[in-house]
Amino acid sequence: MxxxxxxxxxxxxxxxxxxxxxxxxxxGVLARGAGVSPLEVGLMSLLVYAGASQFVAVEMISKGxxxxxxxxxxxxxxxxxxxxxxxxxxxxxxxxxxVVALLSAQLTDESFAMAMADPSKIxxxxxxxxxxxxxxxxxxVVGTVIGASFGGLINQEGYGIPFAxxxxxxxxxxxxxxxxxxxxxxxxxxxxxxLFRWALPGNWTIVLxxxxxICAGAVIEMLRRRA
Amino acid sequence: MRLEMVWIILGMACVTFIPRFxxxxxxxxxxxxxxxxxxxxxxxxxxxxxxxxPILFFDGGGSLHFQSRAVLAALPVFALAWVARSIWxxxxxxxxxxxxxxxxx
Lengths: 227, 105
Prior knowledge:
The structure holds two protein chains of two kinds.
Chain A: H1 3-12, H2 14-33, H3 38-47, H4 51-62, H5 67-78, H6 81-89, H7 97-105, H8 109-117, H9 119-122, H10 126-149, H11 164-175, H12 180-199, H13 205-226
Helix pairs in contact in A: 1-10, 2-4, 2-10, 3-10, 4-5, 12-13
Chain B: H1 3-27, H2 34-39, H3 43-57, H4 68-84, H5 87-104
């Protein structure tokens, strides 16, 4: 552990902390509204630490969902980390498995984006990335527990809090649109998800849509290779 | 703490940790295969669309119904995300729009 690098990383986390706190508070409030206790919120933020999936999980818990669809949805939602983890790995060639476990456990969209903003700062400097990620997660855990503990004091329908999650997800969705094929896939997924949601009981919409799109993606890749 | 909640949290923790950990554990030793990239290319789009669109077109009870407040709040968020690519800007704009529309609609 290099203390100077660690402190440098902690400082670099400031914008993430400022960004996380309001969303963490909103999550705590929503989770409490869905009947999740502050202790459960804290444990989830500590062990799972994945903003969008935590919001989705709470949304599903509020509808009385059992664990399996929630875990499966979380799995599909976080598959995107495969690519971020792969990309980050290119910058750490001589790092022990224990450090890799720590580095990867706290990988989020935001810490990844921040780390990749200047790859020269992270290249074989795991202490820097650990400082960045530890402070970010601290902000998330503390913010969510505060939100859950004092959620009763805040009007949960007020200040647009119910729309915090959709807004975050809309932005993450738009950030994924990198080509006209991605745009087409968004429209196709949108239509399919509405059909699945309308036609089928339970909350299998996300999983079924993801599987359909994997197939569509494979077909497009095949056609592209043939052309 | 409820037992089912513990299962949900542990299950989520496992399936979140695996895709974060495996590639980094493997590719700090080996190089990234090309096929891995296009295999998963459209998954985030699919998952996020499948969450966002039903929010805009279904009510809380699960029946198909145009959610005018949500759709009107969502449109500027789509626009801001496209132009500024700012996650937190989108969250704040979306909350403000939704809050404001509550007084108008």
